[in-house]
Structure formats: structure tokens, C-alpha cells
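hey so u asked for the seq, here:
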Amino acid sequence: MGLAIHSMLPVGTGYTTLEFKVSFIKGMTKDSGRVRTEGRTLNVGRRAATSRSPHHRFQGPPACACHHDLSGFRISEGNVNR
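ran it, C-alpha cells below
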């Protein structure tokens, strides 16, 4: 989900997590099989961004849902590690 937001930010913008939430809808074990997920950007503002990601089993309903809020900030030349 962070990458969904990262791909929407201008060059020179860094970010950090404000909130990360996982809601389990169905139980998952190692025998649950493969899980498909897709991060979607809901909003990208000047200072904060939000994304979500439903996790689906290949055979069945969603297993869990995730919500991610990020805070974006401008990276100055002096703060970049090279």
C-alpha cells in the first residue's frame, strides 16, 4: 500500500507511516492457499495520503482488509544519503 502512494508522489518527496490498520475478516493459516492483494490509493494531499488493500483468497471472499495513512514531506538536498 505504501508503494501505491509512493508511485503518486512527486520526485523528492519522502514519507512515513501515520497509521497502519489490518482488519481480519476470515481466519488465515498456512493451508489457506494463495492470497491476492492490490494496493489502491484513495487520496494524496499536500501532507497526508491514504491507501487501502483488500486481501482475497483465490477461491473465496476477502480474508482481511488493510488501511494505511502516510505523511509526506519534501526531502532537502542536505538530508539525502548518497
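Residues 2-6 form the longest helix (5 residues). The two ends are 26 Å apart (CA to CA).
lmk if thats what u needed
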